């Protein structure tokens, strides 16, 4: 693995991708023990499907692998804890001797996560459980029992953490804003946190110019607060939409950031006949494609991967079909027991301008939209195949051939965003 673009700013770095690989790469690249604060506003394992509403199309959008992972974690909390622990352990490697780790969660998994944090950091390094009042009107939780707070668990790496003279942080925060009153900050990104909450976390635990990290950055509230408080930061999110929203918010305060990826080197063992079959959650990239072509020429005609980076479209030396490897979705539901290949649309330049060549509109739409709903009353997932078919047909009719939502012309190449928020280059 390595980072592209390779050069990282000493002031601010934004990654897109799975934070597991990103934090592993940061450890390898010399950031071990360098962070003064790491904040996790990670998955709460609430059961809710965190899709993104698309008002133009009238549907919710989600990657099927993310949807499936959310369901599996909710049905098997041990799997959720196991995956989360890997990331907590990497965060601890990155944390300095004087650094603090802050994890935000709510009560469904909170107590189990605290025990895990006690085991990882040591009970003697537990500093605080802070209650943030996040709703004035409690959300339903169980029958007559509502939910109106989230917890922040604060841990130190050692006893030599930063102690601020004259500062006494209360354990209940009901004075800094709630979800319902984001006002002008509101990006309508799910679970967006108030900037004032982020500011208090940063101010209580660091000094100016400290290096701080947020590897579930979502809409970017933590980074906006970091900029206002003169902290250096490294952040990431797995969602392309989260990165887009974050970059737009930063641009709104005059900060331009470059998006970085962690990518793989070409692996010859993944070549089978004329197919390169990649199962990693690290996106197949132009870097990997160029190495492949240098090593074996134009032998490979099909590349199957879970994720692709948009720069692969810039490779024009060979005719290659890119296929997403996706979990099977049929009338029985969504399952990883069998996978299917979904052709990736190709950007093309025609007589009338740029267009997207979508080989199989039905299948492409099927693998872009939300498939299951979480019923809070029964704590079960609902799957309605007939309703899904109707929705797909409506989208086929409404989209027609207008797959492109936005075109951005750059100096070297053009970026295309399709109606589902996927990016391509030409």
UniProtKB/TrEMBL annotation:
Tagged with keyword Cytoplasm: no
UniProtKB keywords: Methyltransferase, Restriction system, S-adenosyl-L-methionine, Transferase
GO molecular function: methyltransferase activity
Domain DNA methylase N-4/N-6: from-to ranges: 36-246
SUPFAM superfamilies in UniProt: S-adenosyl-L-methionine-dependent methyltransferases (SSF53335)
Source domain of life: Bacteria
GO process annotations (BP): methylation
Protein name per its UniProtKB record: DNA methyltransferase
């Amino acid at each position: 693995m390595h980072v592209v673009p390779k050069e990282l700013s000493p002031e601010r770095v934004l990654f897109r991708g799975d934070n597991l690989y990103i934090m592993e790469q940061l450890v390898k690249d010399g950031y071990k023990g360098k962070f003064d604060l790491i904040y996790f506003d990670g998955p709460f394992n609430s059961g809710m499907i965190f899709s993104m509403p698309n008002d133009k199309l009238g549907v919710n959008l989600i990657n099927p692998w993310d949807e499936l992972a959310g369901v599996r974690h909710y049905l098997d909390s041990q799997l959720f804890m196991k995956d989360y622990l890997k990331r907590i352990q990497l965060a601890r490697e990155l944390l300095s001797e004087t650094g603090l780790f802050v994890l935000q969660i709510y009560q469904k998994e909170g107590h189990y996560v605290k025990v895990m944090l006690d085991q990882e950091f040591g009970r003697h390094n537990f500093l605080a459980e802070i209650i943030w009042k996040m709703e004035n009107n409690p959300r339903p939780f169980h029958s007559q029992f509502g939910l109106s707070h989230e917890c922040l668990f604060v841990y130190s790496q050692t006893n030599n953490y930063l102690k601020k003279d004259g500062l006494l942080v209360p354990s209940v925060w009901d004075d800094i804003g709630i979800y319902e009153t984001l006002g002008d900050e509101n990006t309508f990104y799910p679970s967006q946190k108030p900037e004032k909450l982020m500011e208090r976390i940063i101010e209580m635990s660091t000094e100016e110019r400290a290096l701080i990290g947020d590897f579930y950055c979502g809409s970017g509230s933590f980074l906006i607060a970091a900029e206002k408080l003169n902290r250096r930061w490294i952040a990431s999110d797995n969602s392309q939409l989260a990165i887009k929203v974050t970059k737009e918010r930063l641009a709104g305060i005059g900060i331009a950031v470059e998006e970085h990826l962690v990518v793989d080197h070409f692996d010859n063992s993944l070549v089978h006949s004329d197919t390169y079959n990649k199962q990693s959650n690290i996106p197949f990239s132009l870097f990997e494609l160029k190495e492949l072509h240098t090593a074996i020429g134009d032998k490979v005609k099909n590349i199957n991967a879970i994720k692709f980076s948009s720069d692969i479209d810039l490779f024009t030396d060979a005719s290659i079909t890119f296929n997403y490897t996706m979990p099977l979705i049929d009338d029985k539901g969504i399952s990883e027991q069998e996978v299917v290949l979904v052709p990736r649309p190709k950007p093309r330049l025609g007589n009338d301008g740029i267009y997207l060549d979508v080989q199989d509109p039905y299948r492409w739409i099927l693998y872009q939209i939300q498939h299951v709903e979480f019923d809070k009353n029964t704590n079960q997932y609902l799957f309605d195949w007939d309703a899904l078919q109707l929705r797909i047909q409506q989208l086929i009719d409404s989209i027609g051939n207008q797959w492109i939502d936005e075109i951005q012309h750059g100096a070297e190449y053009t970026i295309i965003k399709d109606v589902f928020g996927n990016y391509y280059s030409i």
